[in-house]
């Protein structure tokens, strides 16, 4: 659709009947997006259009939505960290080993094609305070792919899959460097990206409420995990989506109740227990058990309580301060030894999820979701 908008624009601004320039411009943006979105390719497959099977009048809060936590980290290897060192050196950041930050290994477009519909994206300034790019804490994930570029990847994918709807969580990442700043200029930049003509076309313009699938197909539901507190309120008023203020999001919360619409008393129920409070020196198995426990408890609640409210569960976790450090991969999949014979949280969740067939579990965010082959199919068959 945005392709045809560009073509329309080309028609307005020139007398040519059509212009290959619009196609070249699209190619250029998608190539710039590739380090985060992944190289664009149109594939078909049943998981890439699973929402086709749900009626238009399905309430989004009643759906089971598989998501990924820290989605943009999928290519954060040692090679990527080394390749970006010249840039992270500019802000004098010493970045710990890549395993600390890597939570995924499939690109965003591959995730979309595999059925993932909720994405956790963390933005901040690039080291020159000019563009908004993606980070996981200190880890700069690409200097090329901007937030705007990556959104065009989603727009194109939705044009190619008009039955689907996507949830994008955008969060300001604060600990990218000693000089990082969430200043008025940055907030204005984000506001401008999210109110551009393309964004107005592709983001559902509902505010503080989630509607029905039929109205959301081909579009993005914005989950605003940021505050625009350095610029006038009118900028916030212009944004669509649901607001999850970082001030209300309890750190490491097992059972967060976050009111995102005070007028209608709409509450989201969130589990974001990302660092199990195990005793120092606890092993991988123990950490996995604690996280699995919190995840299952929250999913159980989603199946039983507040049927018309939004549930958002993070199955992802890490415990890097622990000795030995428990990286996201170990938490999700186990540490690959006899100490974790079953695997990690993901493997434990498969039989649990099989037992929830027919029930509402809500949005669930995973790390390394594709590494236990049964997880996504089990989830989509709920
Ligand atoms: C992934 O990272 C490697 C190593 O930095 C790089 O060569 C490759 O181009 C990256 N992939 C994409 C799609 O950007
Ligand atoms: C996709 O097709 C495979 C093979 O036929 C099947 O096992 C799977 O359940 C299907 N998934 C969805 C989401 O329809
Ligand atoms: C970016 O902004 C921060 C905070 O204002 C400042 O400390 C830093 O020097 C700026 N960096 C550049 C390259 O201008
Ligand atoms: C808001 O909703 C919560 C949970 O559904 C309920 O406990 C509370 O009483 C409601 N408050 C008002 C003012 O309606
Ligand atoms: C796996 O975890 C056990 C228990 O914490 C630990 O002794 C072992 O060194 C770990 N192995 C790897 C490869 O991480
Ligand atoms: C599981 O969680 C409950 C409460 O949330 C707690 O009482 C129990 O000790 C936990 N068990 C483990 C193994 O973490």
Tell me what the structure shows.
This protein has 382 residues and is α/β, with parallel strands linked by helices. The chain folds into two domains: 67-247, TIM Barrel; 248-382, Alpha-Beta Barrel (TIM Barrel). It is built from 14 helices and eleven strands. Strands 1, 2, 3, 4, 5, 6, 7, 8, 9, 10 and 11 form an eleven-stranded mixed sheet that branches. Helix 1 (2-13) packs antiparallel against helix 2, helix 11 (284-304) runs parallel beside helix 13 (345-354) and helix 13 (345-354) runs parallel beside helix 14. The longest helix has 21 residues, at 284-304. It is globular. The two termini are 32 Å apart. The model is unreliable at 1-17 (pLDDT under 50). The structure holds 2-acetamido-2-deoxy-beta-D-glucopyranose (6 copies). The site of one 2-acetamido-2-deoxy-beta-D-glucopyranose (NAG) has 4 residues, from helix 11. Keywords: Signal. InterPro entries: PI-PLC_domain, PLC-like_Pdiesterase_TIM-brl, PLipase_C_PInositol-sp_X_dom. It comes from Penicillium salamii. GO terms for molecular function: phosphoric diester hydrolase activity.
């Amino acid at each position: 659709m945005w392709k045809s908008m560009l073509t329309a624009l080309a028609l307005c601004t020139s007398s040519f009947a059509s212009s290959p320039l619009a196609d070249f411009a699209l190619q250029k943006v998608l190539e710039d997006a590739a380090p985060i979105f992944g190289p664009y390719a149109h594939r078909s497959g049943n998981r890439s259009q699973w929402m086709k099977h749900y009626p238009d009048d399905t309430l989004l809060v009643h759906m089971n939505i598989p998501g990924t936590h820290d989605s943009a980290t999928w290519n954060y290897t040692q090679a990527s960290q080394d390749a970006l060192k010249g840039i992270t050196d500019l802000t004098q950041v010493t970045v710990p080993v890549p395993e600390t930050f890597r939570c995924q290994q499939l690109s965003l477009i591959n995730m979309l094609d595999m059925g993932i519909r909720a994405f956790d994206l963390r933005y901040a300034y690039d080291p020159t305070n000019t563009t908004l790019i993606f980070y996981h804490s200190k880890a700069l994930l690409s200097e090329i792919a901007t937030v705007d570029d990556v959104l065009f990847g989603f727009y194109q994918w939705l044009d190619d899959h008009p039955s689907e709807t996507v949830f994008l969580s955008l969060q300001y990442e604060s600990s990218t460097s000693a000089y990082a700043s969430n200043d008025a200029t940055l907030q204005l930049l984000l506001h401008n990206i999210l109110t551009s003509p393309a964004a107005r076309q592709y983001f559902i313009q509902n505010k503080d409420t989630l509607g029905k699938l039929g109205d959301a197909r081909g579009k993005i539901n914005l989950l605003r995990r940021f505050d625009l507190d350095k610029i006038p309120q009118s900028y916030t008023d212009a944004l669509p989506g649901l607001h999850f203020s970082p001030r209300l999001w309890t750190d490491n919360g097992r059972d967060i109740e976050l009111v995102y619409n005070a007028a209608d008393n709409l509450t989201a129920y969130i589990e974001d227990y990302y660092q199990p409070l195990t005793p120092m020196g606890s092993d991988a198995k123990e950490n996995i058990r604690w996280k699995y426990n919190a995840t299952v408890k929250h999913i159980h609640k989603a199946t039983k309580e507040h049927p018309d409210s939004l549930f958002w569960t993070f199955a992802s976790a890490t415990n890097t301060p622990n000795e030995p450090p428990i990286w996201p991969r170990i938490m999700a999949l186990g540490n690959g030894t006899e100490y974790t014979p079953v695997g990690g949280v993901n493997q434990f969740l498969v039989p649990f999820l099989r037992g929830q067939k027919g029930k509402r579990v809500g949005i669930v965010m995973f790390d390394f979701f594709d590494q236990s082959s049964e997880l996504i199919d089990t989830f989509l068959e709920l």
